[in-house]
Amino acid sequence: MTSSELLTPEELRPVRQCVDEVLAELNRILLGHEEAHRLLLIGILSRGHVLLEGLPGVGKTALVKALGALLRLEFKRVQFTPDLLPGDILGGSILQQEPDGSRRMVFQPGPIFTNILLADEINRASPKTQSAMLEAMQEQAVTLLGETRRLPAPFFVLASQNPIELEGTYPIPEAQLDRFLFKLEISGVDADALTRIITERRRGEPPPPRRSLERAELDALFHAMDRIYLSEAVARYIARLVAAGHPGAPEALPEINRFVAFGASPRAAIALAESARGAALLAGRPTVGFEDVQSVAAAVLNHRLILNYQAKLEKVTSFDLVRMLLERIDPAGIDWPEGTQPVAGRKS
Amino acid sequence: MKSVSGSPSLQHAAKCFRRRFFTALYLRCLPASLTAALFCGGGVLLLLRLSGPDILLHRPVFLWGIPAVFITMAILLNGIIAARRLPAPSRFIAGLDAASRAGGLFCAMVETSPGAWGEWLPPIQVPVFHHPPLRIWMPSLAGLLFLLGAGLVPVADSPQTTLYTLDLSAEQAALQRKLEVLSEEKLLPEPELRNLQHAVEDLRRHDNALEPGRGYQLADALSRRIENVTDALQRDQRRQLEELRLLDTAAERLAAGADDGADHAQANAQFNQLLDRLAAENEGLARSLSECGARSTSCPPDEKLRQLSERLQHNARLLEHRLSRLNEVCQNPGTASTMQQSTGGSDTTNPDQALSDFLAAHAPEATELNEAVCSATAGSLGGEGGIQRGRADAPLNFTGETAPSGAIRKDLALEGGASTDNDTLLARFAAAPQTGDLPQSTPAPGNLNAAPGAVRQSGRPVHPEHRTAVRRYFQQHSQPRGNP
């Protein structure tokens, strides 16, 4: 079977059923964050790292823990503090005495050697410690004392950070920020969801998962992800979206030129394509559509558009700019006649 | 999702989308281009009506054709621009995908086989365009009103509006009269007469003021054609008249010398021989002779000779009448004589001179052009030739190579350089020259205006485009020599 052949409906049906069950279970465990759950699952299917940003108590850590329990993957949590050192994450060699009395240096893996690493409050660690995770996030490998060690597959970093209490924090470097597939903003829940949380969660403890994924099922999901077809037209749309985010580019909008200091990297285009594949899989389609790209564009691009002081002054957020890009860039790349308004078509 | 047809319907929808897109593009740009074309066309029309060339003002198709060309060009250019702005066909598929929210299935169908998904495609929705409001056509409406207003502006009176025509009505009337005479006298066979009448009718139809040269050439050709016919008829009639007179004289001599035996028999034989020859050539005469019994073998009695003489005199009068009418037609002033001059003492005005004066007054550039051509073709130094340096048939003398200085010239006459008498053009006639020993200087019986000894010239008329040059040539050479 060549890669250009689409997944058949029969092949796609069990995959979608599996994804739906995981998503439903996630929504059952954590109430009121359906969209965040969907994007987080897309991030996992895309084998990307996710940065969760939200106020304390909105359920960031609980979400990651629930996901770890659902996926049945090895899960470790590191609470990032200013005095955290790279060795505390990556591990190190220690002198160990053998039974025969000899001594030798033995590598003691750090918490990063896991499938899911919860980097809680990652912005509280020093840049030195944060940069220790760059190689691990990009190459799924750790190099210590000249020895490179592969991390277990799959490897996800699910980090969280607090947008307030910025005293004593270190902003995440752009290089590390770019390695996160998504940056999800976890907001508070509405009153209905809150009511359910109060009534259904005693002491705030989430219920245990009733369904968890086997490793084979996860591999099947990854395999299906690889076969989601990305057409040239959609790829061109992704490229135009990313290119239009660069100030000074021919496709750039006036607002981009005004408020953006640096645009998204090519890694962002790759991330957008991969996450759009995940969105298509969740939608039960064998092909990536324009709406899949649009559904994940904000999560992919919002932390990759580096805004200037003018944007901060006028309180323009990256989400606003991404929304403008999605509104003004035609998915099909058609330059519509000025003054004409194409509307929802008639059935042909 | 519901089952729809696969790729063919998608291609059909893409074509439909493309057509709608083209229409939207075309209609979006058309008001501006049409407005520009209408104002440009109206402006040109206004300028033409106020100070345009006469020919445009007298031909509405030219006048309104210019705005029509502008509008047509605007429409065509708009179409070309719209066609060039059309996106690639694959983008229309992508547009259909986005509009139908097909999730990339339509785009994927262009690149790969949909497989089982062909039965699960969503319904194709072709985008519909909301065209701009009608108020964008207001400038075009203003342009149209401007164009119509420019077309209604009265033409300004200017001296250039006078259009000179070549009046060929007199020539046509003369030709028509000639034909009527020829028809009444039955001097021409019916088919030839009909052909000539058709030619005159063609001349009348083609007497176009904008093409005077062509009308003049038609009239000239037809005049020469009829002149040839009348010349031949006149020669034939004169010959028959002379023969009838000879026959009449012979009949009188025969009647007077009837008693003289030997001479009478000889005269009778000669008379019968002449009578037979004339009867063979002239059918009317043969009929007259048979009626009066003059062709009997026996000697005709006096009464028969008298009747024959009367009949011959009657035929002679008839021929004289025909010749008279023919001469009247040919010499009548204001008829065919306008095409060629008569030297028979007529005091008619020369139309060539009038035309030459007209051209000299109204077309000075023709004279300038003529001089420029003459100066260009003529050499500025001796020996270089040219139309103003000696006769064309003058002997050519060549010298040897010329040394820079102190050279001795030696003339060398080349063979064949001198003209011969055979090469000299003496005259040119419209008809074949007369043969026989008929007296050339005898004036026509009916030509009362002709002076004795005058011979009517039948040379080719001078064309209008040459008349100025001819007039200047003769004016130049008619000046008395020796005068400063």
3D structure, described in words:
- The complex is a heterodimer of chains A (348) and B (484).
- Chain A has 348 residues and is α/β, with parallel strands linked by helices.
- Chain A folds into 2 domains: 10-202 and 211-227, Rossmann fold, CATH 3.40.50; 229-329, Magnesium chelatase subunit I, C-Terminal domain (Helicase, Ruva Protein, domain 3), CATH 1.10.8.
- Helix content of chain A is 44%, strand content 18%.
- In chain A, a hairpin with a 5-residue loop joins strand 3 and strand 4 (103-109).
- The longest helix of chain A has 21 residues, at 9-29.
- Chain A is globular and about 85 Å long.
- Chain A starts with 8 loop residues before the first helix and ends with a strand.
- Chain B has 484 residues and is an all-alpha fold.
- Chain B has 15 helices and 3 strands.
- Chain B has a two-stranded antiparallel ribbon with strand order 2-3.
- In chain B, helix 1 (7-51) packs antiparallel against helix 3, helix 1 (7-51) packs parallel to helix 6 (138-152) and helix 4 packs antiparallel against helix 5.
- The radius of gyration of chain B is 43 Å and the shape is elongated.
- Mean pLDDT of chain B is 68; it is low at 1-6, 333-349, 376-392, 416-427 and 436-459.
- At the A-B interface, helix 10, helix 13 and strand 12 of A face helix 1, helix 4, helix 5 and strand 1 of B.
- Strand 12 (341-347) of chain A pairs antiparallel with strand 1 (125-130) of chain B.
